[in-house]
């Protein structure tokens, strides 16, 4: 076996399955055995702090986009439901309703 130090040995060379810590999740660069591994969100390995930080920033941007789009769709839905509910309910002004 020529690459024994970085192999996850399954019994024979042709059925080699790389270990999940062998490569950086962002740049796909090989992570050597004696180098630091920078982890993110449980089991996502990165070769450097820079790669990990880039992934964190991409995830945060995706989260912000998702929250912004869900807020927009919720606002549209709530304004439509408010229009429908206003026509179906009779409310007396000056009254206080306590639930």
TrEMBL record:
The keyword tRNA processing does not apply. Residues 80-89 have a biased composition (Basic and acidic residues). Keywords: Metal-binding, Zinc, Zinc-finger. Coiled coil: none annotated. Residues 58-99 are annotated as: Disordered. The keyword Zinc applies. GO terms for molecular function: zinc ion binding. A zinc finger (FLZ-type) spans 19-63. Pfam families: zf-FLZ. Residues 19-63 form the FLZ-type domain. It comes from the Eukaryota. Belongs to the FLZ family. This is FLZ-type domain-containing protein. It comes from Lithospermum erythrorhizon.
